[in-house]
Please model this.
Amino acid sequence: MNIAVLITCHNRKAKTLACLEHLFKAEIPEGYEIEVFLVDDGSTDGTSVAVQENYPTVNIIQGTGNLFWNRGMRLAWETAAKTKEYDFYLWLNDDTNIDNDAIVHLLECYNEILLINKKSNVIVGACRNSLEQNEFSYGGRDKKGPVLPNGKLQSCKYINGNIVLISGQIFKKAGNLSADYTHAIGDFDYGLRVIQEGFQCHTTKNFIATCLSNNKFPQWCNPKENIFKRWKAFHSPLGLNISEYKIFIKKFWPKQYLIFILKAYVKCIFPMLYHKFSFKK
Model:
């Protein structure tokens, strides 16, 4: 069986190489093969050359420099799907270092759910901040927050795209990542679409990768930033990107659209007021 590994990167040569090192050292179950599709989105730090020298089997796709995460992953996925029909697709962030048994564990989780539900499913890898501490950074989430690995398979509603296993069957039904988004939101959107199609998302039983959390307070609603910086981040692909956030909310919560959007604007323009009064019982 074939697994297409999808990665996108931009000017993070050391991290990209570390990601690939862990990937190619990882155990691959008998009967499975991986093929890597890496979008280098206009890197100027020699990433493509270094990847070619160290991992010549990687399929490198050159981006425009303006793809960011979602559009870069879309291009990687589109290229892989045109190459041949894969049994699985594995999203992998270039700042995520997988454990040696990560792919084995993902497939075991997938097959366990398949036996129970008789239906294809998405498996989201639980990531820790560091090897020293099993502190959740990315993975599956629900309305209450992160779904922490507990040795059992658990369903989730939202997925972080750091490491995610998606079957070819689900790809045929749900398709690629949405073209509506530039950088963020695309992973959450995809998980919700998968659920709408009648499939399920589950997290791995254990932590299977390391990825440091970007837990900085968002600039677009940070009271310590002035309104001009907040407003810029509010519209930036690396911030909230309000125009794309509106699409996301309207798609999945149309009845609550105005409330969600109003809250976002208040949070940006009056962040101290918002944090003082929001969610108070």
